[in-house]
Request: fold
Amino acid sequence: MKNIWWLLYNIFVMPLLYLGFRVARLFNQKIRSGFDRRRVQNSFLKKEVQLLDKSKKMIWFHSASLGEFEQAKPIIAKLKAEKDVNILVTFFSPSGYSNSRKYPYADLIAYIPFDFYKTVNEFLDIVNPDVVLFMRYDIWPNLVWALGNKDIKTMIVDATMLKNSNRKLPVIKNFHISLYKCFSNFLTVSIEDAKSFLDFEIPKTKIEAVGDTRFDRVYQKSLQAKSKKLFRDGLFDGKKIFLFGSSWEEDENIIFPAFEKLVKNNKDVVMIVAPHEPTILHIEQIENYFANKERTIRFSSKNNYSGERVVIIDSIGILLTLYYYADVAYVGGSFKQGIHNVLEPAVYGIPVIFGPKINGSIEANELVKRGASQIVRNTNEAHSVLNKLFSNDEFKTELGLKASAYVNKNLGASEKIFSEIEKYL
Reply:
């Protein structure tokens, strides 16, 4: 059956995908940069590989984008600290590739090659990996089949599989069975995910629930955050900080009026707003909303801070560190397409609130179940919860302790994954 899937994929699917990329590159600069780099990167890789110590094992981590790569970082850091290995990192997305070019623990950084049979085999001959780890889900058929043919140890890490996943639909399921036979290990986030993978005729010995490395990553970054100085010491003395993270307009329509009501009776509360997309237009919209209501200041002007009630973050990449300063956090996206990362504030042991769209987040649901977070569905609910959190220290501390306990209980996935990799070194 594998041969049939190979023919169908290479005769029909992959040519159409490639054509789609060629068309998309004409209209999207990011796609164009990734497409053009892939066409020439083998020549660069050959030169870069020559500079490496060939006596070391080559461990290859593939991530679809920057988010998945964050989950790989704790494993890579541990490998580099305890094993003398070469690390190859690849991405599908241009943003992941461009934003990780200076990652210090990678010996090689590249795009995953076009998934043509000849192209992936040329790529494998150049990099010659000993172990390959796919983070979560971004697997490509020709590459996976080639890894299986070469008997290269291959894992899916932080793997998830819903009980009713579309991958289990007739025909599609058979296709995935042909892919999953090529993998050495399936290291899943939960026991439920592990059980669900059994539907693909995978031997139980290849599947293990080890947890989610996202917990390890946010914990590592929280320790680093304590040494960073985003604000000068004493800037917010006597203040309580409400961190509004990853805000969308839909969130702001609920939370901003609630904050206005809150500060009428809580004069010492300061709100730090970190827009999901801190464009000039979005920042100006926030400033206009609070005009004649509350004084605002942009993060880039923080040295001029003089008691403004609203601080607007006009830079990117600092949100997890910002949560370090917070007494209470709201995580955005939960009134739009879906909630953002709730572990980033929870790791600091602070209460986390959010809107109703959390079905896609196991972590958000778990925090609610454990009493560490509360859902707000409108402005009145948001004001009520915020007022209670900022006026009742015992209640605020209780929720915060439950949040940090949830994170701490789930640490250690990186160590378990490292142990599995170590078996092949």
Residues 9 and 141 are 8 Å apart (CA to CA).
